[in-house]
Amino acid sequence: MKEKTSPETKLLREALDVQVKQNSELLGQNKHLLSELQKQGLLVGKLQSQVDQLLRLLFGKKSEKKAKSEEENNEQEVNLPEKIAPTQKAESQKQKPKRKPLPEHLVREKIKYELPESERMCQCQRLCHMIGKEITEQLEFIPARFYVKQHVRYKYACSLGCEVKIAPLPPQPINKAIAGAGLIADVLISKYQDAMPLYRQSLRFKRHDVEIPNSTLCDWVGYSADRLQPIVFALKAELLKHKKLHTDDTIVPVLAPGKTKQGRLWVYVADGSFGYKATVYDYTPTRSQRGPQAFLTGFSGYLQADAYAGYDALYQSGDVIEVGCLAHARRKFFEIAQTVKGESHAKDALIKISEIYAIEAKVRNAPHNIRYYYRKKYLKPLYRQLHRWLVKKQKMMLDKTPIQQAFNYALNHWRALQNVLAHGSLEVGRVENWRADHNDHVSSPRSSNRTCAANASGFRTKYHTFALGTSAITCAIL
Questions:
Q1: What is the largest CA-CA distance in the chain?
Q2: E strand intervals along 219-346
Q3: Which of 55-59, 93-97, 231-235, 435-439 has the lowest mean pLDDT?
Q4: How many structural domains is the chain composed of?
Q5: Labelling 207: which of 213, 307, 397, 466 has CA 20 to 30 A away?
C-alpha cells in the first residue's frame, strides 16, 4: 500500500526539481563563461605578445645577440670537449688601440724633409751626420674627374667621287650615348654597391659643371642591364652547379594603377664551399612558388632556406635536400623571451640552443671533414636532447599561444634542422650575416627610389634591372 504524499511534499519536490534544473543550467553557463574567459585570456596574451614585439621592433634592440656577461655565463655552463675548449685569456688591462698600417699596394709619394746645413750644427760646433729617418704616412685621395675622349676618324674619298671611306668606331657599351665605359661603370657601382640613387649622382656631376638628367642616367642603367644579361645567365648556370646554395627573399614595393603592390626580390648565394663564390638576384611580381622553382630548375644538392612552403615542391623529388636554419627557430623563442619576466620555456630553449652554437663556434672555420666528425660526436647528442625536450614540453603548452607556435615551428621542421649534420659545409644557422651582406643592396632602390614600375607585359621593371646589375657587380667584388 503506497503512502500518500502530502501537498507540501509535492511542492518541495517540484521546487527541488526546478532548483536542480537551474543549477544544471548555471553550471552549463559557468562552463561556457570559463571557456570564453580562457579564449579571451589567450587572445589577450596573443595580442599582448604582438604589441610587445611591435614595441621591440620600434624602440628595442634589433640585434638578437645576448649581452656579453650572459654569453660568458652560458659558455661556462656548456661542457665543451677538451680539444675545442676555449683558451683561458690572461686578465690584462685594456690596451690602447693600435692604428692599422696603410695597405701596401697603395702608391707611395715620398716628400723628403732635410735640415739645412746651418741647422745641422751641433752645440760643440761639429756638423751632425744622418743616423736614420722617421717616416710618417698620411692617406690622401685624388677626387674623380671628368675628361672628354675624342674619337677622331679620318675620312677618305676617291678623287673621282666614287665613294667615301671612314674608320669604324670600336664597339661601344651603349650605341650613340655620350657616356664611356668608365662613366657607366661608375654609375652602376655607385647605385648598386654604394647605395647612391641616380638623382644624387646627377647632383654630384653638376658640381663638375656636367649636367646629366636623371632620365638619361636611368636609360644608361637599363641598357647596361641588357648588356650584362648574358653574364648573369652565365653566373646562374655556374651557380646551379654548386652542391649547396643559400636563398632568401625580401619585399619590394611596386607601383600599380591606383595603389602600390608588393614584389619579391630573391637572392641565391654560393659561398664557395664547392667552387667559386657567386651571387645571383631574381625578381618576381609575387611570392609564388613558381619563382624559386623556375630559377632552381636543374639544381641538385643542399638548399639552406627558411620554412617557406614554396620550396616544398623542390624537395619532393629528393634531388634537393632541405637544410633548415636554427636561427629562424631561435628567433621565435627570442621574441617571446624578450617579453617574459622570470623563468620561461622560451628562455630555457635559448639556453639549449646557445649550447649548440657554443660548440659550433669552435669549428666554424675548420675544414669540412673535421667539422663533420666534430658535429657527429658533439652536436648530434645535443640535437637529440633538444628534440626530446621540445617533444616533452610541447604537451604542456596551451593551444594557439605564441610559445606553442614556437615549439610547433621547431618540431615541424626538425628534419630540416638536423640535416645540417649531413655535411661539414652546411651551416647550423646564419653565419657572418650572409643575408644582410647581400640584401643590404636592396636598400638603394627601396629607400631612395621608393618604388619600381608596374609589371607590364614585356616591360623591364626597375627591379629586373636591379637584379641583373647587382648580380654582376656583387660577383665581380667576390
A1: 153
A2: 244-256, 259-270, 278-284, 301-304, 320-323
A3: 435-439
A4: 2
A5: 466
The answer to whether position 160 is within a domain reads: no
Element of type H or E holding 400: none
Cα 307 to the chain's mean position, in Å? 15
- How many CA atoms does the CB half-sphere of 276 hold within 13 Å? 16
Alpha carbons 405 and 103: distance in angstroms, whole number: 51
Burial class (CB in 10 A: 0-12, 13-18, 19+), 459: exposed
Q: Helices 402-412 and 380-394 sit at what angle, rounded to 10 degrees?
A: 140
Which whole-number Å values give the CA distances from 423 to 178, 304, 314, 353, in the listed order? 52, 12, 20, 20
Whole-Å CA distances, 206 to 41, 209, 214: 62, 5, 12
DSSP code of residue 446: I
Give yes or no: residues 400 and 272 share one domain.
no
**What mean pLDDT comes out for the span 445-459?**
39
pLDDT at 64: 67
pLDDT value for 275: 80
pLDDT score recorded for residue 4:
61
pLDDT of residue 161: 82
Does the pLDDT value for residue 429 go beyond 70?
Answer: yes
Beta pairing, strands 244-256 & 301-304: parallel
Question: Which residues is 156 bridged to in the sheet?
Answer: 165
- Of 429, 447, 464, which closes a domain? 429
Burial of 232 (0-12, 13-18, 19+ CB in 10 A): buried
Please enumerate in sequence order all residues whose Cβ is within 8 A of that of 451, keeping only pairs 6 or more positions apart, or say none: 253, 254, 255, 260
Whether residue 413 sits in one domain with residue 435:
no
> Hey, which residues does 127 pair with through a beta bridge?
121
